[in-house]
Amino acid sequence: MTAPRIDSPLPISEPPQVREFRQILVWPLQLLPAGNANGGRVPRAELHERLCAGGWQAAVSAFSGDPQRFSERHYKEFVSFLPHAQRFLYGESRAVPGANPDGEAALRAFRRHDIHSLRVVLREGMPALLLRVVRIELSLLDDVDAAMLQVELHTQDLSLEVAHDLLYRFGRAYPTGWDEDGNGVHNALQVQWLDAEGKVLASSDADQRDKFLDFAVQHRAPTISSHWAFLLQPLALDPTTTADVLRFRQIHQYRLLFLVNHFHRATLLLYSQLLADAIQRLDVRSPDSIRRFKRRIRASFEGFLRFTHRYWFHELSEIPHLQAVYRLCGTRLGNDTLYAEIKGEIREMVDYLDSDAQRRQSTTVMRLTVVTTLSLVGTVATGFLGMNIFADAEEPLLHRALFFIGALVGTGLLTAYAVIKSKRLADLLDALSDESLNPSQRLQAIFGSWRRSQ
Question: 17, 18, 89, 115: which could form a disulfide with 163 (CB 3.0–4.6 Å)?
């Protein structure tokens, strides 16, 4: 056996290649109504109508009733989930034909078909990549103002390094800074949506530094690149100067994970933001602010109950590996911890509102009790002596009217005084009713209460 020469060239291995590349980008979004972005819920009928008018189309479910659309693949997918998850994802059966083709499913989907492909340049000096847009879908949930944008891309024959860079840069909504040449940092250099004929529909503008800086200074929030704004039309980023548009906020960005877990986390983050906004806008010196705070907390509690009983579940499937992956995803996202935190915050706020209402009610009852007790003395006395203490029945009308007005004013002043001093009078009544006190101690309590009232 001959040993190899030291100066012989070593074989150079080719860099790893990705033969099939598929990326699914997932963006959870918070939906806001037109006009006042901080009040009310987004009307579902209006949302569906505006999406259809803006280029989106309602996705036809495999359970639409057409046997040609339902295959064994759909059946296997359906039976993989437990019954409550089936109703959540696919809806329920309806006896009346044609009543609702989706069976009133809690999950509704809309898709765009005008965007055919994506052209992206990751870094300066790199060639452009062309990827096929497999699916652009916006998923909505009933009773929850949350949406999930999904963009699925596909291409072939990429180097592993380019594939990693594409995963890292494509999903960026905005640049995190700019380099010396004015190019955005951590985002793709250029992104373009193309139609079926290769025509550019929208391009990114990450190099427009002044646009992003001005928006952040004015609104204290980052804006998104123009190609993402085009994709989400007719929804507009909140805040916006246009009043009559439906708006959205980004809750967070996640990729390559599962839809149900992301809806859970997106909804929990939505309630967390609603609670933070309610606390921030609370002014305890303003009765109107307190009333608005109570209404918002009650509405948040009601919506959280609907979310808990309709959408929040830990058992997704009876297939072991599907259930294991579902739990792993939820654990990595911290959904259980976040749910416990939001539930505790809402419970604390509701308990505070209940205790405050009980305190106000008990104070009112105490004051009314004191006034009623003091009024009882005069009522019994006048009832016992009758109405003939003063023989004014034969006096002129003016004299009787003045006498009545004087008695009315005196009674009103006495009642007002009793209400003002009701707390001290209540303490006095407590001292008089305390059987552990002797007569001298009760007299001291009476004189002490009288001195404090001076």
Answer: 18
Helix (H) or strand (E) holding 391: none
* Count of structural domains, the chain: 3
Average pLDDT over residues 228-242: 85
Tell me, yes or no, whether 437 and 310 share the same domain. Answer: no
Q: Which residues lie closer than 8 Å to 173 by C-beta, 6 or more apart?
A: 27, 222, 224, 225, 228, 250, 253
Domain that holds residue 421: 369-453
Residue 409 buriedness (CB in 10 A; 0-12 / 13-18 / 19+): exposed
Kindly state whether residues 228 and 176 are assigned to the same domain: yes
Q: How far apart are CA 243 and CA 35, in angstroms?
A: 5
Q: pTM for this structure?
A: 0.63
- Rounded CA-CA distance 377/199 in Å is 92
DSSP readout, 305-318?
HHHHHHT--S---S
- Convert 136-169 to b/e letters by CB count within 10 Å (16 or more is b): bbbbbbeebbbbbbbbbbbbeebeeebbebbeeb
pLDDT for position 454: 52
Do 334 and 360 have their domain in common? Answer: yes
Residue 229 DSSP SS3: helix
In sequence order, the β-bridge partners of residue 237 are 248
**The predicted structure's pLDDT at residue 96:** 46
The DSSP letter of residue 68 is G
Both 431 and 444 in one domain: the answer is yes
